[in-house]
């Protein structure tokens, strides 16, 4: 039905297509960056984007569900992070064999899923009430919010500011609640320690810009979704904004991030580093 209805709607199918594209791509990019940090770059945004695209195309064609969102979620990141930490502690695995071991975990998982599908184990869902589904949905929502805020230990922040302001650091501090954009990146992510972007004021500006862009994108995207009920503007324009407002706001706020004054260093705000799949840096660990 999705295929037939999509062909009959003409250009109107572009609105849900773009919406689902961004709804799939943005979390994948965000979780890919988190996965890269947790696995020391062995798995990154390149792998999450490629796997999401391949699985989405296969499921759309073979599963007959072209409008279904297929992507990475926080439980997936937790699993791969646990596998990586476990592999690092094993002398016969280590970082070198992490991908091979994770691959075999996925193979055995697929075999078990095939067996569950063959014996129609999905019927067990009738034993659960809707509360279980809503609780799982709430879990995913909370994990998304956690990743969006992404707190970090204050001990790292205090150590940085103490060194910059020449004040004693009396840590450790276990309080959490500072967004990671206000902190220094990892040592292996710093190419030039003498760069001005790692100075106190520019780290603060970087975090402030991250908060402004995040809140601005969220607020304007939610507002444009209700454009049809606006009291101003002609009908077709309000419909266009309501249909394409979310991707337009992503483009607009991304453009805003490039319109900063010339006095701001080029590394502020920080941007996601995602090389092309065929570049050497993407293939080094394969």
TrEMBL record:
Where does the record say this protein resides? Membrane
One term of GO molecular function: solute:inorganic anion antiporter activity
Q: Which UniProt keywords apply?
A: Membrane, Transmembrane, Transmembrane helix
Which GO biological process entries does UniProt record here?
monoatomic anion transport; monoatomic ion homeostasis
**One Pfam family of this protein, by short name?**
HCO3_cotransp
Q: Name one GO cellular component term.
A: plasma membrane
Q: Which PANTHER family match?
A: ANION EXCHANGE PROTEIN, BORON TRANSPORTER 4-RELATED
Member of which family? Belongs to the anion exchanger (TC 2.A.31.3) family.
Return the protein name: Bicarbonate transporter-like transmembrane domain-containing protein
Species of the source = Aegilops tauschii subsp. strangulata (Goatgrass)
């Amino acid at each position: 039905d999705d295929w037939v209805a999509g062909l009959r709607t003409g250009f109107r199918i572009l609105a849900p297509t773009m919406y689902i594209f961004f709804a799939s791509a943005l979390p994948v990019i965000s979780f890919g960056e988190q996965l890269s940090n947790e696995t020391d770059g062995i798995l990154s945004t390149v792998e999450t984007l490629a796997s999401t695209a391949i699985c989405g195309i296969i499921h759309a064609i073979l599963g007959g569900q072209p409008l279904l969102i297929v992507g990475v979620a926080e439980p997936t990141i937790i699993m791969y992070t646990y596998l990586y930490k476990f592999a690092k502690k094993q002398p016969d695995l280590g970082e070198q064999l992490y991908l091979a071991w994770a691959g075999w975990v996925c193979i055995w998982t697929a075999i078990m899923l095939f067996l569950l599908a063959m014996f129609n184990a999905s019927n067990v869902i009738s034993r659960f009430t809707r509360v279980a589904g809503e609780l799982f949905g709430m879990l995913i929502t909370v994990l998304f919010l956690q990743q969006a805020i992404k707190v970090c230990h204050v001990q790292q922040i205090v150590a940085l500011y103490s060194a910059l302001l020449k004040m004693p650091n009396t840590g450790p501090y276990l309080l959490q609640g500072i967004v990671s954009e206000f902190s220094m990146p990892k040592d292996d992510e710093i190419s030039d320690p003498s760069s001005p972007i790692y100075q106190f004021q520019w780290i603060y500006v970087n975090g402030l810009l991250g908060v402004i862009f995040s809140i601005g994108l969220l607020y304007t995207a939610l507002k444009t979704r209700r454009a049809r009920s606006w009291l101003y503007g002609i009908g077709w324009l309000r419909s266009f904004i309501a249909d394409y407002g979310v991707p337009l706001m992503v483009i607009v706020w991304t453009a805003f991030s490039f319109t900063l004054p010339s006095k701001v260093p080029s590394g502020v705000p920080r941007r996601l580093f995602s090389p092309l799949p065929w570049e050497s840096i993407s293939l080094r660990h394969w």
